[in-house]
Amino acid sequence: MNWSERDVPDQRGRVALVTGANTGLGYETARVLAQRGASVVLAVRDIEKGKQAAARMGGDVTVQPLDLSSLDSVRAAAAEVRGRHPRIDLLVNNAGVMYPPRRTTSDGFELQFGTNHLGHFALTGLLLDRLLPVPGSRVVTVSSMGHRIQAAIHFDDLHWEESYSRVGAYGQSKLANLMFTYELQRRLAAHGGTVALAAHPGVARTELARNSPAALRTVITWLAPLMTQEAAAGALPTLRAATDPAVLGGQYYGPGGRGEVTGHPRLVTSSPASYDLEVQRRLWAVSEELTGVEFPV
């Protein structure tokens, strides 16, 4: 019940790629994996910060340039990773943006949907054949409690061109992360090896909320000591999904405290909307069309 870093099993012999691993949840996830012996690839946008993070971690850690807001960058990164690693045991889709003013990616997608969902969708599809032959391999995608807030998949305006809501767009992207995980798991089930899981950190003290409106940042700062947890604790649901031998494909892990805000990681459930099979399949088809990436499953 009190699962912690100490419960992460030996990771020697495993290759793990973690996006957004130079700071916050991604850093803590990669740090623990490296300390347990994994060969860890930090896939980051800022190379210098990535190198600094790798130096602090120690172990077998390399840095890979990756900008999830550019499909060209995603394709280039995937090609470089494939060239260096004939096998991948673990892909952690962690990086994300939250509540920015409306901006678009280099491909014209709304920034939160394009980065948080479409970038990771494309990266996973381009690397999946490196995971499929590996026994026990996993894809873990980090969602958020925000998937419940003003969240729906707006197929009529995926990129919020008509009217932009920072909160609604973030909720859509985090809901998409879960729907992607559940649909991916159904497709992987026929292969019997790789599994897909999701996790959320509760409310962790990271840089993610830096784009929040000023009033919200003030509330977060005031409540932080009472209602949030350190990034290392927020990373534990991801680490459990990534390493616990008892997990099953399609599961979702989050903090076990009241309201899933803080606490040790446990199995949780997502919103009713996230389990809509028809929307999951439609989102998958739209994501393949937008990214030009087709999965080998």
* Helix count, DSSP H or I runs of 4 or more residues: 9
Helix content: 40-55%
At CATH level 3, the topology is Rossmann fold
- Count of individual domains: 1
Gyration radius, to the nearest Å? 17 Å
Question: How much of the polypeptide forms β-strand, as a percent range?
Answer: 5-15%
CATH architecture: 3-Layer(aba) Sandwich
What is the CATH superfamily?
NAD(P)-binding Rossmann-like Domain
InterPro entries: NAD(P)-bd_dom_sf, SDR_fam
Protein name: SDR family NAD(P)-dependent oxidoreductase
Keywords: Oxidoreductase
Family: Belongs to the short-chain dehydrogenases/reductases (SDR) family.
Labels describing this entry:
297 residues; alpha/beta; Rossmann fold; two-stranded parallel sheet; 9 helices; 10 strands; SDR family NAD(P)-dependent oxidoreductase; oxidoreductase
Describe this structure in words.
The longest helix has 24 residues. Helix 3 runs parallel beside helix 4, helix 4 packs across helix 9 and helix 5 crosses helix 9. 41% of the residues lie in helices and 14% in strands. It is an alpha/beta fold and 297 residues long. It has a single domain, classed as 3-Layer(aba) Sandwich (Rossmann fold). The mean pLDDT is 94. The strands form two sheets. The protein has an eight-stranded mixed beta sheet, sandwiched between helices. Strands 7-8 form a two-stranded parallel sheet. It is globular and about 50 Å long. Keywords: Oxidoreductase. This is SDR family NAD(P)-dependent oxidoreductase. Belongs to the short-chain dehydrogenases/reductases (SDR) family. It comes from Myceligenerans crystallogenes.
